[in-house]
C-alpha cells in the first residue's frame, strides 16, 4: 500500500490537529473492522479526484493520447521513448501546440513512476 501521510494544519492548536488526525484514523479503521471493503479502497479515494486544472485521465486515456501522437513508437520502443518523442513533437519552442504539450506532461505523470 505504501506510506501514508496525514498533514493537518486546519486548527491553530497542534493538539486540535492531532485530534482531527486521530478521529480520521479511527474512521478508516472502522471501515476495515466492519468489512465494508476488502481491498483498502478507503486509502485510494484521492486517486478519483480530478486534477487541479480539471483534467482527469486514466492510464488508458493517457496511453491512447500518446499512441495518437506517435503511432508505432510505443510498441517498438516503449512508453518512455514514446513520451519523449511526443514531447519533442508538441513542444511550443519547436512549433508544437502548448495544450498538447501539457497533456503529454500529464500523461508522463500517469505513465512513468
Q: Any descriptors?
A:
113 residues; mainly alpha; 5 helices
Give start-end ranges of low-pLDDT stretches: none
In sequence order, what are the helices and strands, one letter per element?
HHHHH
SS-based class: mainly alpha
Proportion of residues in β-strands: under 5%
Give the tally of structural domains.
Answer: 2
Task: Give the beta-strand count.
Answer: 0
What general form does the structure show?
elongated
> Any idea what the radius of gyration is?
20 Å
C-alpha end-to-end distance: 15 Å
Largest sheet, strands/sense/barrel: none
Q: Give the proportion of residues in helices.
A: 40-55%
Helix segment count? Answer: 5
Let me know the average pLDDT: 82
3D structure, described in words:
- The protein is an all-alpha fold.
- It has two domains: 14-48, no CATH class; 59-111, no CATH class.
- It has helices at 14-33, 59-69, 73-77, 79-90, 98-111.
- Helix 2 packs across helix 4 and helix 2 (59-69) crosses helix 5.
- The longest helix has 20 residues, at 14-33.
- The protein is elongated.
- The model has no long low-confidence stretch (mean pLDDT 82).
